[in-house]
Amino acid sequence: MSQKEKIYNMFSQAAVCLLLFFSISSLSAQENRRYDLTQALKIGAEFQGPEKVDVMRGDLQTVDWVSLRNKVIVLDFFDTYCATCIQAMPHLQKLQQEYSDKLQVIHVTWQDKATLQKFFDSNKFLKENKVNLPIIYSDTVLRKMFPYQAAPHVVMLYQGKVQAITFNRLVTAANILQLHKNASISLPIKNDFGTVDLMDKNDAGQRTTGVRISGYQDGVPSKPLKFDLDSASGLFKTTISNRSILRALLNIWGFIQKPPFLATPNRVVWNVPDSSIYDDLGHKGEAWSVKHAISYERLDVVKRPDSVQAKIVLHDIHSLLGIRSYWSTKKMKCLLLRKSAAHKIDSQHIKNEQEFEGTGVLTSYIGLSGVYLPIIDQVKSKQKITIGTFSNLEELNQQLNFHGLELVEGVGDVGVFVIESE
User: Fold this and answer.
1) Strand-pair partners of 201
2) How confident is the model over 231-275, as pLDDT tens digits?
3) Whole-model pTM?
4) CA 75, 77, 80: angle at the middle one, nearest 5?
5) What three-state secondary structure class fits 50?
């Protein structure tokens, strides 16, 4: 993806993430009602696939589970509106072509044939990458066997057994070959219905008050700070599951003090020996999380306001991990948004215009890309600003000039988030 496309897509992606967050939150309750989770297949279970499934695309006219027994079957559950699912399809296509004697990838979705046909006919990305793998569509049976809340969701089958229920980034050549050779594999479990359970129980089998922090919890989804009532014990429960230390801290601080800027990577100051254990800086995904993600649980007798409880959680994590975190400023190179003389601009060359409610929203949007230096808004105007796509600072300034604004390099006191070891 070009820099121009990255910048243009960033705002819409942020909006989609917010929508997905609320959608998944409401979906969680729906999914627990829809599925009898006690009937879901677990790793090691015998797999007897449905006798008849509806298949389109790819080389398979039908799916004969018995004839595929000696191949690693990857069931890739997806939705057409899942960007991560679509991005992974060329990778799966390449694996299928290279290891066709050992592997069979099958996409699975609840969506109907007409919807899928229209999607694949119009998707240039998938056409350019010659993606043409078989799809089981209008599925209800496999989804009951392997329930999930969020796609992508991957199941690996081999020799008639469930070998892995895992994350799409773990569908690699190395893992496929290992499973095919050894007839078994140990991968992180993706269980969208798992819950954190870190606390010990007393002699009566009851959970007691206390606090505990632990590493990665297999079979538990990554979730931010959550407050609820533990129905089993009647205690008030605070949890964080499988988050990086940085993401956990920012999440907690969001309940305490929301800063006027986004803590993008260029606004995080690391005063620690090794920053790579605090966040997935290399974008390694679950492989990183298994080694470095943390989970937290606290049980209390009394219920406190969220902001007060968050301060207690922050103190716990600071104390248990031997670190400190806080908002501050640092003098550093940055971009200064300031007023300038207004200039006319040929609006015919501006594409994909978006309107921003003030300079604060605009600078936050530009900062999301991570392409440019941190921005200090010296104008602080509420005026509406219309900006189209741009691929560099010069093109952006041409559009800003129309509104009597400009971005210039300078040095200033930039708002930062600091993590330091004690």
Assistant:
1) 207
2) 888 999 999 999 999 999 999 999 999 887 889 999 999 999 999
3) 0.80
4) 135
5) coil
